[in-house]
Amino acid sequence: MFCAKCGNQMEEGALFCKQCGAKLTGESNVDRVENNPPPPPNSIPPEVSVNSSKEQLYKKIIIPIAAGIIVLIIVLILGLNGKFTSGDKYVAMVKGGHPLDYPDKTYETTFNGFFDKPEWKYLKAENGLDIVQFDGECTYYGKPAHMVIQFDVDAKEGKFDIYAIEIDGVPQNKLDIGVIHNTIFSN
């Protein structure tokens, strides 16, 4: 007995073709096959190979490419709307800024002159604030100290304020923050 769809020789009593999966219906398959010569050995019916090739191409190449393009578009849209940012603009804003009392001294120049190992970075606070954090080493009451100064940045308004200062991990109160700030800029 032969499969009417692909011409594969089948075992007597088989219900489905092992080659192409076509349902066999008994005598009618034999009659149809006898009128059509079987395909050459080791040949795959064109409809099987083309369909499976298209399906594999679709699964392995087209779907991942389409998904990648969609992700790229989303990232670009969010990036252009400011949802993702490296924080460079915030850091640059603080570095180039100056206190009202010291219009000729930028934070960058003053901090780089006052502190050893100055480091600037941007942070997005849990409360949604855009924070620029400065870390540096200095002398505090005659002893080496690590100081962290955080600035709350409002880029839309073009303003920023000192948000917090810590010395060796100890938060400073508002009065001490003002004294520390003036000490850094008056040197």
How would you briefly describe this protein structure?
The chain has 187 residues and is α+β, with helices and mostly antiparallel strands. It is built from five helices and five strands. It has a five-stranded antiparallel sheet with strand order 1-2-3-4-5, covered by helices on one side.
Give a structural overview:
There is one protein chain. The protein has 187 residues and is α+β, with helices and mostly antiparallel strands. The chain has three domains: 43 residues, no CATH class; 29 residues; 99 residues. It is built from five helices and five strands; from the N terminus they run ααααβββββα. About 4% of the residues have low confidence.
Jot down its keywords.
single chain; 187 residues; alpha+beta; 5-stranded antiparallel beta sheet; 5 helices; 5 strands; rod-shaped
CA radius of gyration is 37 Å
**Strand segment count:** 5
User: Which strand order do you get reading across the main beta sheet?
Assistant: 1-2-3-4-5
Terminal residue distance: 101 Å
Which class do the helix and strand fractions yield? alpha+beta
What is the helix/strand order? HHHHEEEEEH
How many domains make up the coordinates? 3
Largest pleated sheet: 5 strands, antiparallel
Describe the global form: rod-shaped
Proportion of beta-strand residues? 15-25%
Strand-helix topology:
Blueprint: H1 27-35, H2 46-80, H3 88-96, H4 107-114, E1 116-124, E2 130-140, E3 143-154, E4 159-167, E5 170-171, H5 174-186
Antiparallel strand pairs: 1-2, 2-3, 3-4, 4-5
